[in-house]
Amino acid sequence: MDNNIIILGIVISLLFYELTGISPSGLIVAGYFALNFHSPYRIAYTFGVVLLTWGIAKLLSKVMILYGRRRFAVMILLSFAINVLVIRSGVLVHTPGIIGKIVPGIIALEWERQGVLKSTLSLGIVVVLNLLVIMWLGVPVISL
């Protein structure tokens, strides 16, 4: 079922992008957020790593040339390194899973490309649409 949710997220993200011209923080991100909707901790952790990744990349761009594939690679590697450092420090009680490793780099890249507000709002819209379709299909998303 997890693969279907990711694929649904990709389809909705692609449709959203085609209709609006705004990227919802990458094609796979909304699906992963929908999968982890039951764990707000993971989503908050992800945005913390995004913020650190984005900030460090901004600082690095002042001393090195970051564009294209190099910028993408730096964002992914930074988010991965931050995640490893946080996990090894023993600060976390729960493991963030994949959402804390690769996804923050993708979001940080979109923040850099089209701005924080536009990227985050479009991601929120696509995640909600994804969740509505999942609930319509009968998959429990929210446990009360």
UniProtKB/TrEMBL annotation:
Pfam families the UniProt entry points to: Caps_synth_CapC
Gene that this polypeptide is encoded by: pgsC
Protein name per UniProt: Poly-gamma-glutamate biosynthesis protein PgsC
Keywords, comma-separated and alphabetical: Membrane, Transmembrane, Transmembrane helix
Highest taxon of source: Bacteria
Regions crossing the membrane: 7-35, 41-60, 72-91, 121-142
Taxonomy of the source species: Bacteria, Bacillati, Bacillota, Clostridia, Eubacteriales
